[in-house]
Amino acid sequence: MNEHVNFSSSRLSTDKPLSIAILAMGGQGGGVLADWIVGLAEEQGWMAQTTSVPGVAQRTGATIYYIEMLPARDGHAPIFSLMPTPGDVDVVMAAELMEAGRSVLRGIVTPDKTVLIASTHRSFAVSEKQTPGDGIGNPEVVVEATDFAAKRTIAFDMETLAIKNGSVISSSMFGALAASGSLPFPKEAFEATIRAGGKGIEASLRAFNAAFERASGKPNEALSATPHKRLEGLPETAGHPALDRLVNRIRAEFPEPAWPLLFAGVKKLTDFQDPAYADEYLTRVAALHALDRKAGGEEKGFAFTVQAAKYTAVAMAYDDVIRVADLKVRASRFDRVRKEVGAKDDQIVYMTEYMHPRMEEVCGTLPKGLGLWIESRPALFDRLDHMVNKGRRVQTGTLFWFLGLYMVSVLRKGRRGTLRHAREVEHREAWLSTATGLLASNYDLAVEVLNNRRLVKGYSDTHARGLSKFDRVMSALSMLRDREDGAAWMRRLRQAALLDENGVALDGALKTVGTL
């Protein structure tokens, strides 16, 4: 693809400035990208201006960089605009999928004029992360909007491409811009601009060229190609003797529809504890599957077994202090953070964590007998809680805090003997017993009871709120167990519980069920 020669025909004159809007979040190099574009234009004899307007995207802050440029004219300095005008922007560059959607909502992407260059990766907003249920924005809405909103769209995962080449997303976006043909400048001029920057030149050029080739090869790659999370199928082997045995057990003992979830559960629980714990998980699901088969579940595609495979694994891989500490000291996490911030080999990166432990978590980590002994003495419990229940900012890169968290993570070997584990097992078995008790009389309701486990997540206050919602939803079971539409109503109650943190929607739904 070489659209540079078509530039003059797509823009009949240069009486009006060529305009570019960049939507980028903090740390993505939006300012560097804007400076590159201005520097490129000026080096080619054009006059250019850039402005920036900071905003909030509930991530790390979003900024709109706006650039206008015109060829230089004898003795006449052009007057450039300070902000993009809806309907009059030639190129919009979005450094994240939802930022592309925001640009459409703002009206700065138009079908008769705008080339949209967007990265299809996601950086989740705070509002998406804090929603009790699945609060992730629907990317299909953005896909549908850009299908008709832009004159042309160039979209792929520019973030991942940049990271693979040791750079940041601004480099790959610059490459996509060069390949788009939206600017009447040769590729060599773009590369010269990067070299003039003087920092991270080789990595930036690698990302630039990789993006240029990607955009040139698939200039109209649809946003619908955005990868979505999918469960892996069952592999022939897992690459480890203990896991290979578990894979063979899945294949031999369970129906094929449950295989992907069972394999995901085995991987999760092996990582959480050990292969023996994953084997315990398969034994428990096998018992549930036997009850499912006895209740005629084959006619319903063994829906009960499939959901049991998913949510039993979720229940057994609960979030506790040991798990949190384990995740925070993993080398893979430090490597991931370094890549995300674009740190070089000779640079030191410190991560500051905010932790607010309660005495409940401390007791949960202790051996069952000791934890119960402390909890049964309110005065002692309150005194100890006063000592530990306070916010702390922890730098996991320092030796003191790293060793402290590492010592907590080592406690995973004794996790089965902790008070928290005993309570999780008790709660899990009561939940599964309730579900299996419904299999013969109301199969669909039994499946929905299994699905209610998604209400319980996290640790500390988050876990307590989730348990409270779970108990409130389950409290309606006595009113629903004999109803033909009981499963539908249980599903509505769960959806209401996931709508808001305070449970206002759930209060209303429970009142409605009470009047049935």
Structure overview:
This protein has helices at 7-10, 30-43, 97-105, 126-130, 139-149, 158-164, 169-180, 187-197, 201-217, 241-253, 259-272, 275-294, 303-316, 321-328, 331-341, 359-365, 368-375, 378-388, 399-409, 419-436, 443-451, 460-474, 477-480, 486-499, 504-514; strands spanning 18-25, 46-55, 62-71, 91-94, 115-119, 152-156, 352-355, 392-395. It is α/β, with parallel strands linked by helices and 516 residues long. The strands form two sheets. The chain has a six-stranded mixed sheet with strand order 2-3-1-4-5-6. A two-stranded antiparallel ribbon has the order 7-8. Helix 22 packs antiparallel against helix 24. The longest helix is centred in the middle third of the chain and has 20 residues, at 275-294.
Mean pLDDT, to the nearest integer, reads 84
* Silhouette: elongated
Structural class: alpha/beta
β-strand number: 8
Span between N and C termini?
Answer: 64 Å
Question: Major sheet: order of its strands?
Answer: 2-3-1-4-5-6
Helical amount:
40-55%
Largest sheet data:
6 strands, mixed
Number of helices: 25
- Oligomer description: single chain
Radius of gyration: 28 Å
Strand content: 5-15%
Low-pLDDT segments, ≥5 res = 1-12, 218-232
Question: Which helices and strands appear, and what pairs or packs with what?
Answer:
Blueprint: H1 7-10, E1 18-25, H2 30-43, E2 46-55, E3 62-71, E4 91-94, H3 97-105, E5 115-119, H4 126-130, H5 139-149, E6 152-156, H6 158-164, H7 169-180, H8 187-197, H9 201-217, H10 241-253, H11 259-272, H12 275-294, H13 303-316, H14 321-328, H15 331-341, E7 352-355, H16 359-365, H17 368-375, H18 378-388, E8 392-395, H19 399-409, H20 419-436, H21 443-451, H22 460-474, H23 477-480, H24 486-499, H25 504-514
Parallel strand pairs: 1-4, 4-5, 5-6
Antiparallel strand pairs: 1-3, 2-3, 7-8
